[in-house]
Hints:
The structure is a homodimer.
Chain A (H helix, E strand, L loop, with lengths): L4 E8 L2 H4 L1 H13 L3 E6 L4 H8 L6 E2 L2 E2 L3 H25 L4 E4 L7 E5 L11 E6 L1 H9 L3 E4 L2 E3 L5 E3 L2 H12 L3 E9 L17 E3 H9 L8 H12 L4 E6 L3 H5 L7 E4 L1
Parallel strand pairs in A: 1-2, 1-11, 2-8, 5-8, 11-13, 12-14
Antiparallel strand pairs in A: 3-4, 6-7, 9-10, 13-14
Amino acid sequence: MVERFVLHVVKIGGNAVDNPSTLASILAAIAKMQEGVILVHGGGGEATTLARRLGLEPVMVEGRRITDAAMLDVVVMVYAGLINKRIVASFAAHGVTAIGLSGPDGDLITASKRTKSKVKYGYVGDITAVDVALLESFLDSGLLPVIAPITHDGKGQLLNTNADTIAAAIASAFARDYRVLLHLCFDQPGVCLVPGDESSVLPVLDAARFRELSASGVITSGMLPKLENGFAALAAGVDSVRLLHADAFASFVAHESEAGTELVE
Amino acid sequence: MVERFVLHVVKIGGNAVDNPSTLASILAAIAKMQEGVILVHGGGGEATTLARRLGLEPVMVEGRRITDAAMLDVVVMVYAGLINKRIVASFAAHGVTAIGLSGPDGDLITASKRTKSKVKYGYVGDITAVDVALLESFLDSGLLPVIAPITHDGKGQLLNTNADTIAAAIASAFARDYRVLLHLCFDQPGVCLVPGDESSVLPVLDAARFRELSASGVITSGMLPKLENGFAALAAGVDSVRLLHADAFASFVAHESEAGTELVE
């Protein structure tokens, strides 16, 4: 059997994006990794903060942001502008040449506006295609792709797409030819049986148990999209999917400690 | 003599960025061009509008924006986020696959923070290097680079750099190996002897006349950086430098009409 190249798809959001020292520790850890890495970021709290300063009240439904035209401008500014360029510039300080990308760049991620839904999400896009060859060309050139959760419909419209969904879609798109490890970093130590109680973290979670825990309400609505994305990536052939605390990422990828919850089929 | 490849460096700002129909006409015209194009954009009025909504009062000195930390966030959001991604997404509607870039992306444009100046400009960068090979690789892949006027110092700091300066620096960097035409689009019909009077446009302006007109105050301070950048590009070997109204760009590049002011040495 031919040894496949290893690709790590790392997703960060929340505190990892908002807190400079957490972000720096993650970028430093990525800089030391010897294998291919693609970083996907969310917007942390900054989009919400900016929206409020502009008099827009953010509305979330089941962990997803309702995006009207004014909110789309805010997320494009914060995700594709401020956060994306900050991360790319910070990578340079760690000796890594990164390239910041959103869905329209090089037609990287196309999506269609979500219309058949009970909830009116607004300018929210469901991914229809990821250009793996484009990302490969960057990786081959020694550029680390840093991807903001903005997509486009190919007809001129920008769309907002959940960062976990983008990370899972990219990991899945690479799974045919690469050994892909998807790391979903967030602000909890893993999937907990008791919310916030680190001692109740499940080291492993399979799909049957996931269904059981969602039915019984142990896994709450905010966690559902993240876990659904994770299991979808597994089903698409991604080799490893792990939810872990952003603060645990550095020591985990340095093989110094176990961390978080590994999803298994 | 070997025929050199032709590269058009097009700079847009002001109304061309703010007004959707002007922008659409420029993108449509670029989509029809058979030769290489790099588009550099400013931020139009949106950075100023957003700054005011956030309670920040923009300060301009000699056509250049004073950029404190809060204003840097605003210009990164508006230039590298909103405007850049809007343009890239709009190009897709014209059948052009573009890639939005800022200085930190792929370490495209490095700059040093301006310190030796009478005016305290804040986070303003003077360009130290442009990665021509990276831009060439995009052009060779059929990707049209769309460049926001944000640079970085290579040590983690984003910087604000004038878009005319970036356009001139990119044109100059390509001049050794390409036949380069620099088109500086703006909101006036060219260099006018009487401000706003189209009949007073100079079809041609040479460096000696430029010095004369600046000394006598006919060319005002807001125009100085644009013209200095244009003459610097000529001196660096750029083949053609033209200042023209954004509305005249489409018919000019379609060879349907003359437009604006051509700078000559």
